[in-house]
Design brief:
Length: about 200
């Protein structure tokens, strides 16, 4: 069977204070193009729990929803980008996932995470123990996955904005004025859809 006719299901992981409905424009855009789309609500979504706790929810959903041999494509937005990286790099997700799209995630940390002293928020600070751990082997852990990183230089949640970059994969910079618009602006929707079929 040609995999182009049977594309992987797509799993969408939201960010801080979001729920899966934040992906409604992207979900509709992808479903209109023949993709099967899944999303979950991370609980709690407010930083009270460490990010590995949320990553375990991703692992549980994948285990409970998909057959063991089913490959996946994964999209992580903002805080969800770090949650998905933990799932990929520390919970074995990298053997299941074929394509990974990181959208406006604080991959190198964000100074906005100093605004709250909660465990999950502290882990998104620059040079946090969690980010140092994930970044020290990102090229090995994710090197065989088709990785795309989307970011906007006008991001006011990820500071500095270019701290969302990853040292691997493709990078797409879009002139989108607001952090949440990275999931609704047509340019971002097109870029994500293209990354999910490369």
């Amino acid at each position: 069977m040609n995999p182009d006719f049977f594309p992987n299901p797509v799993l969408l992981i939201h960010g801080f204070l979001d729920r899966q409905r934040v992906f409604n424009p992207l979900r509709q855009y992808l479903e209109n193009r023949g993709r099967t789309v899944h999303a979950i609500d991370l609980k709690p979504n407010d930083g009270r729990q460490p990010l590995p706790y949320l990553a375990q929810q991703v692992q549980d959903y994948v285990h409970d929803t998909f057959a063991p041999e089913q490959r996946l494509d994964l999209v992580g937005f903002s805080m969800g980008g770090i949650v998905t990286r933990y799932y990929l790099q520390r919970l074995g997700g990298n053997v299941r996932v074929e394509r990974y799209v990181s959208v406006s995630a604080p991959n190198q940390g964000t100074i906005s995470a100093y605004s709250l002293p909660l465990p999950g928020i502290r882990q998104m600070r620059p040079n946090s123990e969690l980010l140092q751990d994930l970044n020290q082997d990102v090229e090995i852990a994710l090197g065989h996955i088709k990785v795309t990183c989307l970011w906007t230089p006008f991001d006011l949640m990820i500071l500095p904005a270019d701290s969302t970059k990853l040292p691997i994969g493709a990078e797409i910079q879009l002139p989108i004025p607001f952090h949440p618009w990275m999931l609704s602006d047509k340019r971002a929707l097109r870029a994500i859809a293209h990354a999910l079929k490369k």
